Amino acid sequence: MVGYIVKRIVAGFLTLFVLITVTFFLMHAIPGGPFSPAEERKVPKAVLERIEDKYGLNDPLPVQYLNYLKNLAKGDLGDSFKQLDVSVNELIEQGFPVSAKVGMIAIIVALVVGIPLGITSATKRGRWPDWISMIIATVGISVPNFVLSVLMLFFFAVWLKMLPTFGLTTWQHYILPVAGLSFTPIAYIARLMRSSMLEVMRQDYIRTARAKGVHEMKVIYKHALKNAIIPIVTYLGPLVAALLTGSFVIERIYSIPGIGRYFVTGISDRDYSVVLGLTVFFGAFIIVCNLIVDILYAVIDRRVKMDK
Amino acid sequence: MISIRLNEKKNSRQPDEMFPDLPDELFEKLDETQKGENEQIVRPSVSYWRDAWSRFRKDRLAMIGLCFLVVMGIAAIFGPMFSSYTYDGQDLSNGNQPPSAEHWFGTDKFGRDIFVRTLYGARISLLIGFVAAAINMVIGIIYGGISGYFGGRVDMVMMRIVDIMIGIPDLLYIILVMMFLGNSIESILIALCLTSWIGTARIVRSQVVTLKHQEYALAARCIGSSNLRILFKHLIPNSIGPIIVTVTFLVPSAIFSEAFLSFLGIGIQVPIASWGTLVNDAIPTLFTHPYQMLFPALMISFTMFALNFIGDGLRDALDPRLRK
Amino acid sequence: MKLLEVKNLRTTFQIDAGQVQAVRGISFHIDKGETIGIVGESGSGKSVTMLSIMQLLPDNARVEADRLAFDGVDLLKLDAKEMRRIQGNEIGMIFQDPMTSLNPLFTIGDQLMEPIRIHQKVSKAEARKRAIEVLKLVEIPSPESRLNQYPHEFSGGMRQRVMIAIAISCNPKLLIADEPTTALDVTIQAQILDLMRDLKKKFDTSIVLITHDLGVVASMCSRILVMYGGQIVEEGKTREVFYNPKHPYTWGLIRSIPKAREGRKEKLIPIPGSPPDLLAPPKGCPFTARCEHAMKVCAELPPVSVPVSDTHRAACWLMHPKAAKRRPEVTKHGI
Fold it and tell me: Which positions in chain A touch B163 (Cβ < 8 Å)?
């Protein structure tokens, strides 16, 4: 078990390292430099000089790279090029809790809705609950989340005037963003759960359980579910990644001051420092999440210990 | 065992009393050919592809999807020719018109006909989707084929690389590369081909690994200087089924990615119309002129539906074991 | 006293291509304390018969019978709850593949204590005690520590013992063993059969042993049912069926048992051909296509089951008086 975890951690570091390196050189290879001529005039010379100094923008690239790594090790992700006196770390401190809150709720909603939907689909296969669940699932997979979000925004907030349109001040504000973020994951989870349950219910050990006189409810929710939920645990990794990228659009549509929006703004502003810093952060975050999922998986399925 | 002949007359009742009386001819021996008739006619064997196609045809959703896609494709290629409007022809006096006989989908704020722009958007989105899927398929087959075929160190290294790449979400990579390459169609295609091949590569690899052991006898019989590519010609075609299914889902994935990027404003730039940019453009006027976003949004959704149905249909048709 | 009574059992499966008639009208009974064997090849319907009685078939199966009674109770009239009281409690079942028949994510203890807690309504501690007792009965060493282990930590033979333990944990009146040794090594096979014989002696359980292996049947069972194509083609006391078989399929089975004779090389004698397609079963005798003595009547009409003695029956047109010239001498078949 311990060996397994250690291997995963090492792999994670490796991935992160590759990501940092690739992103760093990519950012610095973009033609035009961080400031276009038009903008340079807006920024006071002193500030320009300070930035150039701090980042050693006139040093050769490998030196800059090593400096960057050194700063990273200290936990310093750099400063924003475009927004004065704002460091990437500050952006994260402000934006991450907001995004995380919405994200966590979205995960919970996705699991709470998706799993039962999938189970019902499987146990009532071919009958109307199955049809409805699968229609919802197909819509979730096909319609892009930003399309759905905009449509929902229009429908509920503008037309019906039932829900607020932007910001996060009351609990009602959370409804649309969470719905927009979780709809596609619900679809994937429902479909996954359905096929997983169908597969598990065909297994011999389910027949053994019934032969012992176990109540059908227990057969489904104890014997089958534990086995069927394994693929869902595996999906949690990509789920977090999907919510991360989903936050880019959701936060834009609903004007939520989260980390996704800072990232998108950084891109359109060509604020390479922010983009680099946030990418590193996202990467680290995803890697940690994947690690947790891997451990969770090993806990549920004891066979993993033996094989790996 | 010892052979014991029990005296039937002593120990058994007369069978005559239990059996019905039947004509003598019925007790003639049945010859081999007549026995064959007793067996029901076996269904005629069909080739793998014909069988798959007939199974695909039975899937109504998949067929609807296919029809939609074909109609959409034809409309995208030939449609704009029939319209007097172009995708960038501005007519400011006619801006923001709702749908009418003149402008089936209405006009946007610059007076451009949305219907034509949507068709152009179809061209771009479908082009990007299919080209990206095709390129990813090729890369994936080569990478997975080599990795699976050679095995050993080569395989380990190649799979390690894949493991490292897979830790990061695709869209992050794509965004970064887009920043680097600029905002043209070519750059999107390049960006999309960076990571999507991984799924295909894995499938190809596992298929090749399985088949490699089956074809091993064949390999042993092959002449020593046999070209590896010959084996590629055997192994890869045999794995085509799962490959097709995986690749089919790459198309909607690519279309989604492009739309996503364009929506965020970091994809294709104006005045080129892709579905993503159309949706993005229509955000400011969402509340006043909702039709401007509705049509491109519906187009994206229906196309994705169609592609997903086709993908599911193909999966059921090509590999019945994967059936839900 | 008849423990199990089956009259005209018919089981069909609904699939895309049509309806598969897996069991086509069979009737038999089991007395208290008996061990009977059901013999036949894959697809003969032997497993489906017992699964039909236990109501363990998938949703697309339809089970019909004129009478299906266990210990005097009409099984056809029971609701799910009442049936559950019989499953695992009065009838225990052992399945063929111990590798897949145990849930990989739960401990052996959990799976073993489950039927005990359900049917005997005892506390967890009591169930644990009983579980350890049963594990000792099936000769699993250090049962206390084994309870907390997972199926993948056991060998095939041990897993099958656990399955037996689960099946007998509530002292069932009837034990159904569906090819209990097919997936195991020959040496383990002997051990498992010995175990079953011991348990039978201790608890006087009735046993139904389903197998395709005549050797197993000879050593364990007092009565045999031979099934082919969803029907019972011959049934009787073990001695009768082995020494005076009346059905060509039974002859074929007996003939195909490899004989270990020193020095002499003998060819294995299989039964040529393959089982009939039960999607569209043949109208006459199901064995016609593979029978060297087949007559025209065999292809046209299903044979009638007639008694050969009080306890021995067979269904074959060869026993009709008009088939006298076709009726071969028993000795010719090298028994």
Answer: 11, 15
A194 CB within 8 Å of a chain B CB:
yes
- Spell out which residues of chain C touch residue B27, defining contact as CB-CB under 8 Å: 295-297, 317, 320, 322-323, 326
**Band of residue A211 on the pLDDT scale cut at 50, 70, 90:** very high
Q: What is the CATH number of the domain that holds B131?
A: 1.10.3720.10
Rounded to two decimals, the pTM is 0.82
User: Which positions ≥6 away from C325 have C-beta within 8 Å?
Assistant: none
For residue range B110-161, what is the model confidence (pLDDT) as tens digits? 777 888 888 888 888 888 889 999 999 999 888 888 887 777 888 888 888 8
Taking only the tens place, the pLDDT of each residue in A27-74 is: 777 665 554 444 555 556 666 666 666 666 666 777 777 777 777 777
Q: Is the pLDDT reported for residue C51 higher than 70?
A: yes
Residue with tokens 């975890």: A5
Element (H, E) at C64: strand C61-64
SS3 of B297, please?
Answer: helix
- Looking at the fold, whether B96 and B34 belong to one and the same domain comes out as no
Q: Do residues B30 and B134 both lie within one domain?
A: no
Residue numbers of the domain that contains B8: 4-39
- C17 inside 8 A of chain A by CB: no
User: Taking the CB of residue B61, how many other CB atoms lie within 10 A of it?
Assistant: 15
Tell me how far apart the terminal alpha carbons of chain C are, to the nearest angstrom.
35
Question: CB C299 to CB B37 under 8 A?
Answer: yes
Distance CA A86, CA B95 (A): 41
Complex prediction ipTM? 0.86
Residues of B with CB below 8 A from A241's CB?
168-169
- Give chain B's domain count: 2
Kindly determine whether residue B18 and residue C331, on different chains, have CB atoms separated by under 8 Å. Answer: no
Residue B48 lies in a domain: no
Residues B222, B274 share a domain: yes
The answer to whether residue A227 neighbours chain C at the CB level (below 8 Å) is yes
Which positions ≥6 away from C148 have C-beta within 8 Å?
Answer: C107, C108, C109
Q: Name which of C103, C110, C160, C164 to mutate to probe chain A: the one with the most chain A Cβ atoms within 10 A of its Cβ.
A: C103
Are the Cβ atoms of C320 and B15 closer than 8 angstroms? Answer: yes
